[in-house]
Design brief:
By secondary structure, the chain is an all-alpha fold. It contains 8 helices and no strands.
């Protein structure tokens, strides 16, 4: 109940007419973030840094504030998220900018008139996560029963809960492991959360299923 209330509160906050976002300022701030997360928010090529492009705005705000408050511990993020470096308004602007970036999941169809730079630019924006092995039927069954309420049927997330589709599999697995170990909170209802009830094979199956969702985008 508490979690649902927070989700509704955040949704109402971001829907408010008084909530003004400055995407240009967010783009300027992203110049600092790009060193790790990429110019387009695409993250690290091996999943060492998560994809932020297209991520849910309320989730990004929530996580940046968690980094700043050190309720989510990440040493590399600490100097960038302190009050003097990233006040609330900047957090809103960078979150809105990153959320606005669209990365296609299919290779572009070029026109004969497209020059080399145009082709390269369009290609660099493509975000295709390789399929991973696993029992897709089991992964789908678990996801639809346990994950869909927060992360949505298409993996795009809801409210302050993150988009999973299009995220690096290595990164997702690393976060799953942190949740299971209790080193990162998965929800606000109890320590541990739903992931602790799964076997290692189940986690792999969920990841395998998530990589199929990008085909539906």
């Amino acid at each position: 109940m508490k979690l649902r209330f927070l989700t509704l509160l955040l949704a109402l906050t971001f829907a408010s007419p008084g909530y003004a976002r400055d995407l240009e300022k967010g783009k300027e701030i992203n110049a600092t973030c790009a060193g790790c997360h990429g110019e387009l928010g695409q993250g690290g090529s091996r999943g060492e840094y998560p994809r932020l492009a297209g991520q849910r705005e309320s989730y990004l705000v929530n996580q940046l504030k968690a980094f700043r408050a050190r309720t989510r511990v990440n040493i590399p993020m600490y100097p960038y998220t302190q009050e003097r470096e990233l006040p609330d308004e900047d957090i809103k602007d960078i979150a809105a900018y990153l959320a606005s970036i669209e990365l296609p999941t299919k290779w572009p169809v070029f026109k004969e008139s497209d020059d080399a730079l145009t082709r390269l630019t369009l290609t660099e924006r493509v975000m295709i996560i390789p399929r991973v092995t696993g029992d897709l039927a089991n992964g789908e069954a678990i996801y639809q029963k346990k994950c869909v309420t927060c992360h949505a049927k298409n993996g795009m997330g809801r409210g302050m809960f993150p988009m999973l589709v299009g995220q690096y599999t290595n990164y997702l697995k690393r976060q799953m492991d942190l949740y299971v170990k209790g080193e990162r909170p998965h929800d606000e209802e109890a320590v541990g959360g739903v992931l602790n009830s799964f076997k290692e094979a189940d986690l792999q199956d969920i990841l395998a299923y998530i990589t199929t969702l990008q085909d539906q985008q």
